[in-house]
């Protein structure tokens, strides 16, 4: 049931919305009165997420599958108001252990998804609507093992700014979170998760860990503020201000 009106009567597509940040954006959009269309790779998990947020519909496919992505956009009945792309995960590996072919494929697929979604958005999103990408802050402080993720996070603000001009009057923006306490973070850190949480609580200026609800709140603002386009919005609890990555 809607508790707000910021997105009343609008349609929001979340690509990669079955868990974590994407699911929380979907939940917040629904709470603000939007009709939400969810996509994800895992049919069972996606169906559960769609029921959880009362999504209007859900479609399972891999966003890196160009044919599946095109079929999804062709299936839409009417122009939509917003598309949020949260599909994907970071790539961590030190150079000595890296499978270069795998890393190259990861970069290519990530860029491919964003460009293909942008191209479909040109004919799908209403004028004045928006396209929202998700990145990170991995390029802000060099570290061992994050070079591939840093490559992408350094380039995506430039891609966003250029697409904002190409797709205008559709707005294009990028959210760059630091560490966010999600199931993906848990799977990446394993037994080290609680230690990471404790470290962040002790060192971040906000004295707490950033959660997906924080990112979703920012996403709703970026979707609804029609003066915003071509920009990158960091959300990391001040993580870049202290000496911890």
Structural notes for this entry:
The protein is α/β, with parallel strands linked by helices and 245 residues long. The protein has one domain: NAD(P)-binding Rossmann-like Domain (Rossmann fold, 3-Layer(aba) Sandwich), CATH 3.40.50. The chain contains 8 helices and 7 strands; from the N terminus they run E-H-E-H-E-H-E-H-E-H-E-H-H-H-E. It has helices at residues 20-31, 43-53, 66-75, 100-122, 147-167, 183-189, 193-203, 212-224; strands at residues 11-15, 35-40, 57-60, 80-85, 125-134, 171-177, 232-235. The protein has a 7-stranded parallel sheet, with helices on both faces. Helix 3 runs parallel beside helix 4 (100-122). The longest helix is centred in the middle third of the chain and has 23 residues, at 100-122. It is globular. The model has no long low-confidence stretch (mean pLDDT 93).
Set out the fold topology.
Blueprint: E1 11-15, H1 20-31, E2 35-40, H2 43-53, E3 57-60, H3 66-75, E4 80-85, H4 100-122, E5 125-134, H5 147-167, E6 171-177, H6 183-189, H7 193-203, H8 212-224, E7 232-235
Parallel strand pairs: 1-2, 1-4, 2-3, 4-5, 5-6, 6-7
Helix pairs in contact: 1-8, 3-4, 4-5
